[in-house]
């Protein structure tokens, strides 16, 4: 206990500042579990928070980092004891409660998930919020009842964090996977993760017809806007689309035609406040089903001190797969 290193976002007259320095335990916010953070990650939302591009941070000063894995140091929560491995994603951590870009975090035990057996802290953060969200998408599609026998599954933003994990998970679950990407140079990478076919994302990016040729039975969309509208228009009758992202935009310039003429369903995915039972089920399944070689292939690692450098790159759509941050 004592001092620890952390990134801090603060408000300035012209926007926001980002500094890396030492903090004191007394600075930590309220919580019943104190964690030695071993790993964090860089998600798209972290890029927005670090740069101030969108108002993600809702309290200043703030330690950013929307997820972390670590080891419990002290706990008054009945579920956790010193030495336990834990994961945290969501719940406003890194937005309104101090987050994962720090060697120490104090949080509510109710927000934590036990590190599943067989998963290391580094692997948990290679998955991170992005991979866990990909699993929520797959679970939503399965819950809807759509199956690999019904046709292929499309993944948009396939080379990114959510997309890469979604490709690997869908392939492992028996789907024929169509990976939509703007990066033809990542073809080998995507085929290596289990994609069967590539689609140029430009073909989905502009305003299209209310209904298009039926091409996929299921989809995971991280892009939103015209892309999501076109994904819906190309979904087979009674198929489903899990929508979780807004890389192209937050708008949805679509028609109701796919819903009322083809029975297509749009499934919304929110990873931030997912209730505990579903959270634990998703993490247990990730530990069981996600191919570790695929996970290693999609992971790049940076030290905590270099997190700022990844922020602009992820917003530019230039990060491939997942970025793990080694913290302590
Ligand atoms: P990444 O930046 O890693 O991946 C996004 C990918 O989308 C890029 O790699 C790129 O893939 C593609 N892309 C980027 N810009 C555009 C564009 N203008 N038009 C079309 N495609 C584009 O981000 P994450 O995977 O971390 O997050 C993806 C999205 O999901 C974000 O919007 C994020 O906020 C959201 N999200 C939502 C969650 C929730 O709870 N609902 C949880 C986690 C993430 P390629 O180069 O292959 O085309």
Chain-wise SSE layout:
Blueprint: E1 3-12, E2 15-24, E3 33-41, H1 44-51, E4 67-75, E5 85-89, E6 104-107, E7 113-114, H2 121-144, E8 153-155, H3 161-172, E9 177-181, H4 187-193, E10 197-200, H5 202-205, E11 216-221, H6 225-233, E12 235-243, H7 257-262, E13 265-268, H8 276-289, H9 292-297, E14 299-303, H10 307-315, E15 322-326
Parallel strand pairs: 8-9, 8-11, 9-10, 11-12, 12-13, 14-15
Antiparallel strand pairs: 1-2, 3-4, 3-6, 3-15, 4-5, 5-7
Helix pairs in contact: 1-10, 2-3, 2-8
The structure holds NADPH dihydro-nicotinamide-adenine-dinucleotide phosphate.
NADPH dihydro-nicotinamide-adenine-dinucleotide phosphate binds next to helix 1, helix 2 and helix 3.
Report on the structure:
This is Acrylyl-CoA reductase (NADPH). InterPro entries: Acrylyl-CoA_reductase_AcuI, ADH-like_C, ADH-like_N, ER, GroES-like_sf, NAD(P)-bd_dom_sf, Zn-ADH-like_protein. GO terms for molecular function: acryloyl-CoA reductase (NADPH) activity. It comes from Methylobacterium gossipiicola. Residues 15-325 form the Enoyl reductase (ER) domain. The protein is α/β, with parallel strands linked by helices and 328 residues long. It folds into 2 domains: 3-115 and 298-326, Quinone Oxidoreductase, Chain A, domain 1 (Alpha-Beta Complex); 128-268, NAD(P)-binding Rossmann-like Domain (Rossmann fold). Helix content is 30%, strand content 27%. It contains 10 helices and 15 strands. It has helices at 44-51, 121-144, 161-172, 187-193, 202-205, 225-233, 257-262, 276-289, 292-297, 307-315; strands spanning 3-12, 15-24, 33-41, 67-75, 85-89, 104-107, 113-114, 153-155, 177-181, 197-200, 216-221, 235-243, 265-268, 299-303, 322-326. Strands 3, 4, 5, 6, 7, 14 and 15 form a 7-stranded mixed beta sheet that branches. A 6-stranded parallel beta sheet has the order 10-9-8-11-12-13, with helices on both faces. A two-stranded antiparallel sheet has the order 1-2. The protein starts with a strand and ends with a strand. The mean pLDDT is 97. Bound molecules: NADPH dihydro-nicotinamide-adenine-dinucleotide phosphate.
């Amino acid at each position: 206990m004592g001092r620890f290193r952390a990134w801090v976002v603060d408000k300035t007259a012209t926007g926001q500042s980002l500094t890396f320095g030492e903090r004191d335990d007394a600075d930590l916010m309220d919580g019943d579990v104190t964690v030695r953070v071993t790993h964090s990650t860089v998600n798209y939302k972290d890029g927005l928070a670090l740069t101030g591009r969108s108002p993600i941070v809702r309290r200043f000063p703030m330690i950013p980092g929307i997820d972390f894995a670590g080891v419990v140091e002290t706990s008054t929560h009945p579920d956790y004891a010193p030495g336990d491995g834990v994961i945290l994603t969501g719940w406003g951590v890194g937005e309104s409660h101090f987050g994962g870009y720090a060697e120490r975090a104090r949080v509510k035990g109710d927000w934590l998930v036990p590190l599943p057996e067989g998963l290391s802290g580094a692997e948990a953060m290679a998955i991170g919020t992005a991979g866990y969200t990909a699993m929520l998408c797959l679970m939503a599609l399965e819950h809807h009842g759509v199956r690999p026998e019904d046709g292929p599954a499309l993944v948009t933003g396939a080379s990114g964090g959510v997309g890469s994990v979604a490709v690997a998970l869908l392939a492992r679950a028996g789907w024929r996977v169509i990976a939509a990407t703007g990066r033809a140079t990542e073809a080998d990478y995507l085929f290596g993760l289990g994609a069967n076919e590539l689609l140029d994302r430009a073909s989905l990016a502009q305003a299209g017809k209310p209904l298009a040729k039926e091409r996929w039975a299921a989809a995971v969309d991280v892009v939103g806007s015209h892309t999501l509208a076109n994904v819906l228009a190309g979904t087979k009758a009674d198929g489903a689309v899990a929508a979780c992202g807004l890389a192209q935009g937050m708008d949805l310039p679509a028609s109701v035609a796919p819903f009322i003429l083809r029975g297509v369903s749009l499934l919304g995915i929110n990873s931030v406040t997912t209730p505990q039972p579903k959270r634990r089920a998703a993490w247990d399944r990730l530990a069981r089903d996600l191919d570790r070689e695929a996970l290693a292939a999609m992971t790049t690692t940076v030290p905590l001190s270099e997190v700022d450098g990844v922020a602009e790159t992820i917003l530019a759509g230039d990060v491939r797969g997942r970025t793990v941050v080694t913290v302590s």
